[in-house]
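Q: What structure does this chain adopt?
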Amino acid sequence: MADDLVRQGKISREQANAELAGSGPDGVDAHLASIDYVPAKPEEYSMPKITEDGAYTPEVAAWDKQRRQWLSTAKLDKAIGSELARNAEETHQRLKGMTDGQRELWAAGQRAQLDRLGFTQERINLARQLVAEVEASSPGLVAYLFDTGAGNDARIVANVVLQAERLNSRPVKK
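A:
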């Protein structure tokens, strides 16, 4: 199966998609439609406020557009994408007053939580691959996840793992 080859690092998700693509929607879109999963358009996500006063400057508009693009590129539905955006902002607010040592302890606790929930390194690597693919299409996500600490949040990692698995769970054409 293509998902096994992607997990093993033998082919990229793009190569798997190309293998699965036929006439009509690409392999990923056809697969998502077959499981009644509807990715949201960028404007459909509910996003947390970016500024304290809610001001919508050109810079804020550009940042809002960027975040929405990341979610849409990952083919997240409205509910999951909106929740990930809220979780990321909560994590950013929680961690911004912490020292580096405190952030490291928090990250270790998040990794332990993922371990307890069965999110193996192999599964997390699949999520990393999805993040890398979004980054290639719409740069800035990796820096954002690192700078805000959101990339260590167990809630976010778990949902990205599940999305990566969802995207890779389609059968290979015979």
